[in-house]
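the two lines:
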Amino acid sequence: MISETFLTEKLQHFFGYNSFKDGQAEIMRALLAGHSTLGILPTGTGKSLCYQLMGKILKKPVLIVSPLLSLMQDQVEQLRYLGEKKAIALTSELSYQHKQFVLQHLGEYDYVYLAPEMLQKQAVLAQLMHISLGLFVVDEAHCISQWGPDFRPDYLDLKELRQKIGNPLTLALTATATSAVESDICQQLFDTNEVPKIIRRSVDRANIFLAVKEVTSQQQKNEYLLQLLPQLKMPVLIYFSSKKKADELSQLIRAKTSLRTAAYHAGLAKSDRYSIQQQFMQDQLDVICATSAFGMGINKKNIRCILHYHLPADLESYSQEVGRAGRDQQLSLALLLFDPADIKLQRQLSSNTLPDDLEIEYYFRHKGLDHKHSAASEKELLLEYYTQRAMTPEKIRLIFKRRRLRKEEKLQALINYLKSTECRRNFLCAYFGEKRVVQHTVTCCQPAGQPLVLKRFLASKRDQTAASVPHDYREIIAALFKM
Amino acid sequence: MFAQEELLYFFSQTQTRRPAVVRQVLANKRTVSNLFWGMQYQILDWLNTQPQMESLLFDKAIKQLLRQAKLEQHPNGLLLTAKGLSARTQYAALHYRIKQPQLFQRLDEKMWEDVLQLLVQVTSELAYANKHYYVAAASDGAQAYFKRWFRTAKQQLQAATLGKMLLAFLKDKPTREADLFMAFFNGHGVVAATSAQLADKSNYNISDIVNLWRDYAVSFAWFLLHQDTYFQALVAPLFKQSLLSNSTAATYAQFLKGALPAQIAKSRKLRLSTINEHLLEAAIFEKNFAFKRLLSATEIEFLAGIFTGPPSSWDYQVIEEHKKKIDFFKFRLFQIGRSKHDL
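prediction for all of em together
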């Protein structure tokens, strides 16, 4: 049995923290006892640290399967920031020569991040078969579940790939999983004779006040936002489901208030995204108008308010995004601005990512999709995946019909949450299959129909004492190079 | 990224110009025909200044300019109208225009921009002896390239030297532009502004800000290339020795050694027409190209006799009317020689 003291010493030694967050030590103890583990820990509870520290303790390579390129790059940057030089993201962004070099020296890296598609490549698998892995990590493991919101067909092959590399000790991680997703992850990832340990922590965050403001039009939404924002405690993160809207509102807020605002989405240049993250981290920005591209890998502890301008896709995304508020455990606000017309928009966005019957027919007839439509390549990848597995158009049609139904069910659950006259925190706990019951009070959330009292979240006086930023080029040069 | 009005710079009131040539020159689509016409339009300096140019956006902008009567359609191309000229003048007064376009065809710009960000950030953190920082967004290739240089330069690298280089580079530049350029860098305790933020704070739009940054970045590379410091070793490999494409350079090397087109074709196992294309490209870019090794005195005399006026207006059909056997390659070579005043 590994003692808590041993783990805490290692934590202190490698990461400089004095104590673990809830769930971390339990996961590590399970892994060190040789049990593959599924960790369901809410956003902000340090999931990555579990495998990072395991790598240090086991002194063997850790392989992390991750769905997003940007997420992998962020994680590698964070490890490098911590002084870890042997971390790499094996992605299509590497040059051919660099990729060959990494492949030939794969066993020498402490942390290797890759997407499931990369893991399927013969050259990668061949190398992995000769390496004694310390830990195999499946990050964002909910992507494996067809019941989950971000299902990725590539994740379905992980069980077979894991077998090929000798079923190494495995840690699957996710922030949110309903009971159905939880059992799906276990079934899709582990062999029948394996019984993974499941460590789950509640999605409930006592310091985040959950509220919904219903409006009747977009204009009313904008007016409310412009009136509320300058009064709120900063910083604030506003989520949008469109890049264009994020840009528009960012401009509007800049024009109508004195708040320092920027938009953040995948359409910006890499360097601009980096600058905005840094400005936000260093409190040079009050408000970020972002799409879901913002947040992953960004660890800012004092976000006082998460606003949703549009509806999120489902309660899984919502609780992940809301979880970015108040990581310092201070009182924070999660406010969703709800215009019933947004339901139609979200329904459209959800179904847009899946090919419909006509597109399936078109794909089979033309061996491709019409790329005039923006989501065509994503849909094509999905269709490619299923056709490569010799599925008939009929079967594929059925799969997507089911997936659409599930998405609709999830959207319906979100709508129920918005309209719920019961405690919102209890609603979320029940949705994620938790037995926990929160003692509802007026300070924990605002159920539908109750007045929205935001006094506790308003700033008494706007703090405008942020350090002044030099503008003269000579001053910038002097500051940069200590001249 | 480009503003619609920027395209007006590339059209003339007196010479009809084909928009496809303009687009392909800006995007560095190097066919001999594009290069030749780019030379005739005197826009070759702008080669590769917009490598990411999307043809759909370009075509849309041209259509818009035609609709606004700033350009007008003629049988051989487009002409700038008086309204277009006035719009261009107004635009030029308010917006930033790249000052050193010719450097974009010499430098690996994308790589350098990433390397420059790394250079400033890493040197700045070094000045404060800080090892814990998030590295600025740079491609993996740029990081690997920079690391290789940094390993050898680290011992002698002084933060103040880079600071002095930047001060020397910027001292004669307009202060407003120098301020905007330096606002783009991250370093110890210094966070860069985004192009949208700088546009907000200045009278420029985002496209101007991006152009300014790119222009200053490549000009700074050129500046460092000519300074006797360890930064020279960082920039020199990113500059091309020659403006010719690799295959053209190989052909031209043999030509310089005295080989004739047919001999080069045989030794390089390429078609004669390909070799001729290479030689035309070399004739366009190379100083002191030996036109007279490919054109006889009689041919020059004949061509000079029948063609006068600007070379862009000459028509190959005229040669056929004189029942002379001079192939198109020689005609084009003569056009290039005359355009460069080398014949």
